[in-house]
Design goal:
The chain is an alpha+beta fold and 65 residues long. It has two helices and four strands; from the N terminus they run E-H-E-E-H-E. Helix 1 packs across helix 2. The two termini are 17 Å apart.
Length: 65
């Protein structure tokens, strides 16, 4: 299932890696694509949206509902 999140606070490549790592910790098979300039994170995962959003938020980034 493809899910798109609006994530603010990503300012550099390290931020992108941190968000990717957070998602991969809860779903190692997830496919993550980040467009930092658009504050967009696209995730291909079978996990519920809430689980993925919580993983991103726990990394310190704001996730729009």
């Amino acid at each position: 299932m493809n899910q798109t999140f609006q994530v603010t606070g990503m300012t550099c490549g390290h931020c992108e890696k941190a968000v990717t790592r957070a998602i991969k910790q809860v779903d190692p098979q997830a496919d993550v694509k980040i467009e930092r300039s658009l504050n967009r994170v696209e995730v291909q995962s079978q996990l519920p949206r809430e689980v993925l959003a919580r993983a991103i938020a726990e990394e310190g980034y704001d996730v729009a509902a």
